[in-house]
């Protein structure tokens, strides 16, 4: 019976093409907007979270407390350093046409202070949940090669960091040469841009802060894995720290042991990365870490990557909800348009309703006929809106990716979005048709037949 | 088969009450052909609507094979219309966006008959009224006589017990009208249906038919019996 009513409804839609398509378009636009915004929003969310996962969600970063205050102040000014390039917080190296290196962000870097006083073994002993500890100390130092001189960001990384936290350093992919071989390796790795600007190759010797060092490897260019601006603003300095660690292009990497031997008196800003055992409450572990580092007299703030990821996810989730709500308004307007069409249709088809009733259509069949009519239009609009939304999402992703700083993401179409948008559009269509259909069902057949 | 006892029907039209039917007693039997005649406003169409379960009397009773129609629900009356009554209207009353065959299919589809079976039966019904070749045509592509034949095919597709025709020749020329009446009469005879025709045209009836004359909602043919034989 329902299939017969659906057939009759479909015949009506088919024969009233212009009006039906205009009505369907209203729903189509709404569903397209919802699908596009949610698919892109979910895609961004997943891409950002994937970046965190690549770094590791079981990591707690111990960031110098001064750096947090400093960085927050910098963010509040809303004006990056004039020559900051891609790295805003830990300093940047740029090279002019004449081949002179200059540093950016060195002033901010100076505020990080010395954090080399943290006793890693003691921390691991005090906090049994900690499985790995690695550190990276950063300072802008002078550099000279044949014909080029200036300053460069030197990253003194611990052996543990290289072995266990490579994700923090963008994966440490080697383009030429090789990575550090032993904890006491005396060589250096050059970031791709540093190598390009200095012209140094594997096997060459460069001079850093007066010390001659052999280049053992050159790193691959860091991936464009910037965490969106909105996320970094929300999550504060820690996101910037992660970003700057991942960007090794402008840096010279040296092992911590070697750097301490070469420059024992140098105050370097240090970030400590701690991995927490799986299954342990990060919050509880952070509490213990806080106590342990306070006991050592070191002033650092622990920030977990999970916490950052949660913050980012929360922010992006809110943005997604707001955007979807705006899109839902357009769907609602589409539904109102459909209600208007259906009501007009009932008025226009009064005589038809009379004919149907005279040949035995029951009230509920007339009701069903109009409900299916509007539901089918809603469903058609939903299916087409879904198809257009999928296309628009891929197009939107291409344009939006570069704009928000996440270039390697694709729209995501969760099954609930696909099925939900189809079901919602059918339901919305049917609901929009309830009042007109009820009006149709209640029509007195004699009056309806008399209608011209 | 259908009997009316002291049936009245009134309408509220603005501040006025219109008496469409007044204390009407009538009886229609299976297999007979009745012609209801009278001037406009005499209550002919109202009577037809009551006989066809499209409306209910204000007072009085209508019995359809012993069942009082006023006691039935709207859906039960619809069921009677679908299974036991066939309507033929003056204005043909085809759904303009559907083809002739799709219009004839409608009662079957509403009865839950499968689409294929409905199509086959509808085509057969159109062939019975000599319109098999025009099955796919829309109402706008058919002549008045063809349209009325489509209406007849639709009215008879469920083998009704009662065929009610409201001015079936009113929109047709004399010759076509005569053909249409003959068709209704022949098909109804085949199924032993009771045929009730509302018309202004005395010439459509034959000596075997039942005539009912009406004026101002009353039967005015004077006889004590409800039927007057020609």
Strand order of the largest sheet of chain A: 4-5-10-7-9-8
Number of domains of chain A: 2
Indicate the radius of gyration of chain B in whole angstroms.
17 Å
The ordered string of helix (H) and strand (E) elements of chain B is EEEHEEHEHHHEHEEEE
Helix content of chain B: 25-40%
* Overall average pLDDT of chain B: 87
Strand fraction of chain A: 15-25%
**Count the strands of chain B?**
11
Q: Between the first and last Cα atoms of chain A, what is the distance in angstroms?
A: 29 Å
Protein model, in words:
The complex is a heterodimer of chains A (452) and B (230). Chain A is α+β, with helices and mostly antiparallel strands and 452 residues long. Chain A has two domains: 2-48 and 313-450, no CATH class; 59-277, no CATH class. Chain A has helices spanning 2-15, 17-55, 65-77, 106-110, 120-126, 159-164, 192-198, 229-235, 237-246, 256-262, 282-295, 305-348, 350-358, 363-404, 415-442, 445-450, and strands at 59-64, 92-95, 101-104, 130-145, 148-157, 174-177, 188-190, 205-208, 211-219, 251-255, 269-276, 300-304. In chain A, the strands form two sheets. In chain A, strands 4-5-10-7-9-8 form a six-stranded mixed barrel. In chain A, strand 8 and strand 9 (211-219) form a beta hairpin. In chain A, helix 2 packs across helix 14. Chain A starts with a helix and ends with a helix. Chain B is an alpha/beta fold. Chain B has a single domain (2-229), classed as P-loop containing nucleotide triphosphate hydrolases (Rossmann fold, 3-Layer(aba) Sandwich). In chain B, 33% of the residues lie in helices and 27% in strands. Chain B has six helices and eleven strands. In chain B, the strands form two sheets. In chain B, strands 3, 6, 7, 8, 9, 10 and 11 form a seven-stranded mixed sheet that branches. Chain B has a four-stranded antiparallel sheet with strand order 2-1-4-5, with helices on one face. The radius of gyration of chain B is 17 Å and the shape is globular. Residues 223-230 of chain B have low confidence and may be disordered. Classes of the chains: A alpha+beta (452), B alpha/beta (230). The A-B interface holds A 1, 3-4, 7-8, 11-12, 15-16, 351-352, 354-365, 444-446, 449 and B 49, 52, 54-55, 74-75, 78-79, 81-83, 85, 87, 89, 93-95, 97-98, 102, 106-107, 109-113, 115, 118, 154, 158.
């Amino acid at each position: 019976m329902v299939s017969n009513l659906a057939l009759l409804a479909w015949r009506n839609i088919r024969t009233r093409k212009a009006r039906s398509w205009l009505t369907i378009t209203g729903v189509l636009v709404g569903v397209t907007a919802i699908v596009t915004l949610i698919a892109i929003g979910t895609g961004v969310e997943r891409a950002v979270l994937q970046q965190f996962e690549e770094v590791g969600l079981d990591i707690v970063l111990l960031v110098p407390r001064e750096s947090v205050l400093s960085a927050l102040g910098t963010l509040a000014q809303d004006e990056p350093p004039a020559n900051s390039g891609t790295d805003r917080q830990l300093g940047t190296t740029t090279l002019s046409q004449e081949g002179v290196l200059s540093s950016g962000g060195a002033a901010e870097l100076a505020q990080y202070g010395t954090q080399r006083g943290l006793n890693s073994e003691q921390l691991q002993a005090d906090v049994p949940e900690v499985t790995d500890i690695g550190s990276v100390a950063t300072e802008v130092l002078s550099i000279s090669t044949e014909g080029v001189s200036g300053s460069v960001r030197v990253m003194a990384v611990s052996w543990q960091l290289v072995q266990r936290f490579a994700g923090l350093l963008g994966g440490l992919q080697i383009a030429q040469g090789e990575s550090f071989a032993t904890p006491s390796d005396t060589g250096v790795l050059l970031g791709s841009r540093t190598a390009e600007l200095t012209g140094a190759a594997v096997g060459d010797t460069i001079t850093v802060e007066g010390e001659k060092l052999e280049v053992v490897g050159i790193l691959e260019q860091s991936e464009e894995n910037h965490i969106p601006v909105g996320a970094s603003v929300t999550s504060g300095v820690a996101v910037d720290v992660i970003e700057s660690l991942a960007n090794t292009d402008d840096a010279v990497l040296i092992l911590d042991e070697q750097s301490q031997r070469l420059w024992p008196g140098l105050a370097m800003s240090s970030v400590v990365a701690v991995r927490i055992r799986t299954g342990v409450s990060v919050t509880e572990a952070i509490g213990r870490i806080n106590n342990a580092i306070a006991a050592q007299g070191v002033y650092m703030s622990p920030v977990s990557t999970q916490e950052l990821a949660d913050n980012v996810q929360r922010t992006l989730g809110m943005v997604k909800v707001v955007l979807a709500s705006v899109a839902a308004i357009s769907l609602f307007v589409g539904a109102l348009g459909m209600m208007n069409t259906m009501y007009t249709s009932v008025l226009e088809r009064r005589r038809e309703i009379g004919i149907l009733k005279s040949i035995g259509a029951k009230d509920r069949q007339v009701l069903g006929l109009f409900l299916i009519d509007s539901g089918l239009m809603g469903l058609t609009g939903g299916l087409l809106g879904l198809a257009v939304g999928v296309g628009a999402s891929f197009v939107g992703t291409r344009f939006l990716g570069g704009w928000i700083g996440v270039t390697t993401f694709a729209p995501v179409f969760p099954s609930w979005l696909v099925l939900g948008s189809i079901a919602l559009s059918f339901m919305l269509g049917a609901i929009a048709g309830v009042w007109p259909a009820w009006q149709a069902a209640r029509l007195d057949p004699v009056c309806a037949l008399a209608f011209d | 088969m259908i009997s009316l006892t002291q049936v009245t029907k009134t309408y509220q039209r603005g501040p006025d009450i219109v008496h469409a039917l007044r204390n009407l007693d009538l009886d229609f039997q299976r297999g007979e052909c009745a012609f209801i005649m009278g001037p406009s406003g005499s209550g002919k169409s109202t009577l037809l609507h009551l006989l066809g379960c499209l409306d209910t009397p204000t007072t009085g009773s209508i019995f359809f094979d012993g069942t009082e129609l006023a006691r039935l629900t709207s859906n039960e009356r619809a069921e009677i219309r679908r299974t036991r009554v066939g309507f033929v209207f003056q204005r043909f009353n085809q759904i303009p966006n559907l083809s002739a065959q799709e219009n004839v299919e409608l009662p079957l589809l509403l009865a839950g008959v499968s689409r294929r079976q409905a199509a086959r039966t509808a085509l057969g019904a159109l062939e019975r009224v000599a319109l098999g070749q025009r099955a796919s045509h829309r109402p706008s592509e058919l002549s008045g006589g063809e349209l009325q034949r489509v209406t007849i095919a639709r009215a008879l597709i469920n083998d009704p017990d009662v065929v009610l025709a409201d001015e079936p020749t009113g929109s047709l020329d004399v010759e076509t009208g005569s053909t249409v009446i003959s068709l209704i009469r022949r098909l109804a005879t085949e199924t032993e249906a009771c045929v009730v025709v509302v018309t202004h045209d005395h010439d459509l009836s034959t000596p075997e038919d039942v005539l009912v004359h009406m004026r101002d909602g009353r039967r005015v043919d004077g006889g004590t019996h409800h039927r007057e034989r020609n």
